[in-house]
Design goal:
Blueprint lengths: L4 H21 L2 H14 L9 E6 L3 H10 L8 E6 L7 H9 L4 E6 L10 H9 L2 H7 L7 E5 L5 H18 L5
Parallel strand pairs: 1-2, 1-3, 3-4
Helix pairs in contact: 1-4, 3-7
């Protein structure tokens, strides 16, 4: 039996809310634990941003895995949510992440033309094109959101992206939303 796209999309958003609550904001005990973890991994008194990363299962997540297996260093500021395709990430999910306390959101997917679901990353690109305007309208700096294409063989690029994006967000300071 085939499910309607609307029903499937609602399920995906519901799952995201549960995961985002655990990773972006969570309950008080988890927030306390996350603060302790970031305190231990960074220099004394240095603030560590919380970056929620949506990673495509086929390319970007594999790129993140390659970065880890290859022992490329990058800051522990990200929390990765694996999605089957970047096309499954709706702008509402990004707004929800900011509402739940994320300092930045990164969406990563397959390179244009290499999507395992034919053209879903083009859909993501068109969906996310309007997001910076929306973020600015609600008082969030558009630099806190980034869309990037990373293949499974680009572990070094993933590492560099996370390092550079973390430094950029660190220079902006906490998201007081």
């Amino acid at each position: 039996m085939l499910h309607s796209p609307t029903r499937s999309c609602k399920r995906q958003r519901r799952r995201f809310r549960v995961n985002a609550g655990a990773t972006a904001a969570g309950n008080k005990a988890e927030n306390h634990r996350e603060k302790d973890e970031t305190k231990n991994t960074s220099a004394p008194g240095e603030w560590q941003p919380r970056i929620l990363t949506f990673a495509c299962n086929w390319c970007s997540y594999a790129g993140a895995d390659l970065a880890g297996v290859s022992r490329f260093q990058y800051p522990p500021s990200i929390r990765i949510l694996r999605v089957m395709c970047s096309g499954r990430v709706h702008p509402d999910m990004i707004l929800e992440a900011f509402a739940r306390g994320a300092d930045a959101v990164l969406v990563t997917g397959c390179h244009i033309g290499d999507c395992h679901y034919v053209a879903c990353n083009r859909q993501t690109q068109s969906r996310m094109a309007k997001l910076p305007e929306i973020l600015e309208a609600i008082g969030i700096n558009p630099k806190r959101f980034k869309l990037e294409w990373i293949s499974a063989s680009e572990g070094k690029k993933f590492s560099r992206l996370i390092t550079d994006f973390t430094e950029e967000i660190r220079s902006l300071g906490p998201n007081h939303r």
